[in-house]
Amino acid sequence: MKDIKEKIMKIVFMTAALVSIAAVVLICTFLFASGVPAIGKIGFLKFIFGMEWRPGNGAFGIFPMIIGSIYVTAGALIIGVPIGILAAIFMAEFCPKWLYKIMKPAVNLMAGIPSVVYGFFGLVVIVPFIRDTFGGRGLSLMAASILLGLMILPTIISMTETSIRAVPRSYYEGGLALGASHERSVFFTVVPAAKSGIFAGVVLGVGRAIGETMAVMMVAGNQPVIPESITDGVRTLTINIVMEMGYSTDLHREALIATAVVLFVFILIINLSFNLIKRGKNR
User: Fold this and answer.
1) Tens of pLDDT, residues 133-155
2) For every residue of the chain, which 3-state class applies, written as one string?
3) What is the distance between the terminal CA atoms of the chain, rounded to a whole angstrom?
4) In 10 A of CB 271, how many CB atoms?
5) Are 172 and 189 within 8 A, CB to CB?
6) pLDDT band for position 78 (50/70/90)?
7) Which of 256, 234, 238 is nearest to 247 (CA)?
8) What is the pLDDT, as a whole number, of residue 1?
């Protein structure tokens, strides 16, 4: 009876794994089969490096959206990564128990807040603050970066804290035995030992930042131009797809699917780059 149960569960697990693989393959097949021909019709250079997005006039250049995605993601990482890692170190090694009981549920709650709620918060709080402090409309690259920086915090904090707590306590005790203080033992012994998990958290944060749509769309200004300052409006690849997919037809629709292909390749390149950097550090 036990052998039969094990065989059944083995089949169930294998089926689940195959379904996941099949889903990824089908998505990739659909994207490339629908998007690549559109790139061929428009022209690769005109599509990737074109500066104008005017579907009504036959202009399908997505370079401003590519730059916008890079700027917004970079801004979110500049804000979110240092705060997230330092907060996780504090929670794992320095936080009093009474405060940890408050901070941990708060971080988990942040992870469960819907994107539209973050977007509404940004629209009501962040945008007016930027408009009153720095000028402009407030709907800007800065607003999108700040909001995304907040949104990736739960991912980075949770992954980093888990990685730090997984480091054997003997590492920390060895640092103390060599005469290091509590702070030096944490930052120069425990944290370096947890760098693999911390790096994974940053990668997941990058994926969240690049793929986020609704919240960014509410605060970014949605202007398909390359921003000249952090107070200018910006449009990302995801926003471009969501805003126009509902009414697009023919080549316009195919161009939006091709934009999704570019976004997919973009994320793939980033993940591969992080993996290469990680391997280089581990040598």
Assistant:
1) 887 788 888 999 999 999 999 99
2) CHHHHHHHHHHHHHHHHHHHHHHHHHHHHHHHHHHHHHHHHHCHHHHHHCCCEEHHHCEECCHHHHHHHHHHHHHHHHHHHHHHHHHHHHHHHHCCHHHHHHHHHHHHHHHHCCHHHHHHHHHHHHHHHHHHHHCCCCCCHHHHHHHHHHHCHHHHHHHHHHHHHHCCHHHHHHHHHCCCCHHHHHHHHHHHHCHHHHHHHHHHHHHHHHHCCHHHHHHCECCCCCCCCCCCCECCHHHHHHHHHCCCCHHHHHHHHHHHHHHHHHHHHHHHHHHHHHHHHHC
3) 48
4) 13
5) yes
6) very high
7) 256
8) 65
Contact 221, 233 (CB under 8 A): yes
Q: Which two tokens stand for residue 147?
A: 């909001």
Torsion angle defined by CA atoms of residues 226, 231, 235 and 237, in that order, rounded to the nearest 10 degrees: 80
Backbone angles phi, psi at 234, to 5 degrees: -150, 155
Residue 282 has pLDDT above 80, yes or no: no
**Rounded CA gap, 45 and 40, in Å?**
10
Residue with tokens 């940004």: 122
Angle at 179 (CA atoms; ends 175, 185), nearest 5 degrees: 35
pTM: 0.85
Distance CA 189, CA 211 (A): 34
In the prediction, which pLDDT does 203 show?
85
Residue 239 has pLDDT above 90, yes or no: no
Residue where the block lists tokens 């801004």: 75
